[in-house]
Target: MYC binding protein
Amino acid sequence: MASYRAPESKREQFRRYLEKSGVLDTLTSILVALYEEPEKPNNALDFIKLQLGAAGPEPADAETLRMELADLQQKCNLLMKENEELRNKLMQFETSPAEGEGE
Model:
């Protein structure tokens, strides 16, 4: 009988841990929201993930974001290159008049 009580006490400790950390309340509220949802979602697990904030972007959205990121990185590189070229030209103009005044 003592061996049977040991797992039960571990279960009780685990249950108290979940309750103390707020996991039970959060899961209960999410399940209640799912229950009260007028039109049940096709995938209950996705609904739960969304409620928990764990759902990532859809694969199509992720691909679009990757493409946009690559495009913006390329534009940034071009602008940095242009900025460097303009700074060099500016430095040439700033040093040229000073040299010309000495003659």
